[in-house]
């Protein structure tokens, strides 16, 4: 759901957090084009003490061109 365009989570209306909700949508699309991957794990699944936030892991393929050798 966090990858849906314009999704902004469950922040209160008067929240200090602003944005259009396009960030992760754009990142996911770019990673797909680069044969990469993105994984989002809610912080509460990592530690019971964390009630908000997330751990985001981005993976890109390791490629080398002839010019870099």
Explain what the structure shows:
- The chain is 22% helix and 17% strand.
- With 69 residues, it is of the alpha+beta class.
- The chain has a domain at 22-59.
- It has a two-stranded antiparallel sheet.
- The chain starts with 22 loop residues before the first helix and ends in a 10-residue tail after the last strand.
Q: Could you give the count of β-strands?
A: 2
- Taking all residues together, what is the mean pLDDT? 81
Report helical residue fraction: 10-25%
Q: What is the H/E order?
A: HEHE
Give the overall shape: extended
Question: What keyword list fits this structure?
Answer:
single chain, alpha+beta, 2 helices, extended
Give a brief description.
With 69 residues, the chain is of the alpha+beta class. The protein has helices spanning 23-33, 43-46, and strands spanning 37-42, 54-59.
Strand and helix layout:
Blueprint: H1 23-33, E1 37-42, H2 43-46, E2 54-59
Antiparallel strand pairs: 1-2
């Amino acid at each position: 759901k966090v990858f849906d365009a314009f999704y902004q989570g469950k922040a209160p209306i008067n929240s200090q957090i602003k944005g259009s909700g396009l960030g992760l949508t754009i990142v996911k699309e770019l990673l797909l084009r680069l044969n990469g991957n993105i994984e989002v794990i809610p912080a509460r699944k990592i530690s019971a003490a964390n009630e908000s936030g997330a751990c985001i892991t981005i993976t890109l393929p390791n490629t080398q061109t002839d010019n870099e050798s």
